[in-house]
Known about the structure:
- By secondary structure, the protein is mainly alpha-helical.
- The protein has a single domain (3-130), classed as Large-conductance mechanosensitive channel, MscL, domain 1 (Non-ribosomal Peptide Synthetase Peptidyl Carrier Protein, Chain A, Orthogonal Bundle).
- It has helices spanning 3-11, 14-48, 75-112, 119-138, and strands spanning 59-62, 71-73.
- InterPro entries: Mechanosensitive_channel_CS, MS_channel, MSC/AndL, MscL_channel.
Amino acid sequence: xxxxxxxxxxxxxxxxxxxxxxxxxxxxxxxxxxxxxxxxxxxxxxxxxxxxxxxxxxxxxxxxxxxxxxxxxxxxxxxxxxxxxxxxxxxxxxxxxxxxxxxxxxxxxxxxxxxxxxxxxxxxxxxxxxxxxxxxxxx
Length: 139
């Protein structure tokens, strides 16, 4: 089998395609959450703490010189990234919690179904029916 055929077989597996779709949707979801945090959550939060724009929060470690730019520790962007992460993690948590709840309901439905008789119970019933039939034939 050639390398190209092996790769085609690998790439066309269902789980690889599912993973690719998940990564693409995850990247798009990440952009949505970043916009939500940066454009909707952080501005009011900045106003609440005194008009601070988190993306501008930084500490200059070394001032700019003629040939070199300033060395800046941009901790505001880091804070925004942490908030992004927390929102994404919470959304995933809620999604998994919802899926688990649905799966739990399915398990409850399966438990509620009446239990089928065991093999021994069936054999006992057959034995009893045969005895009853034999007694009816003898009378």
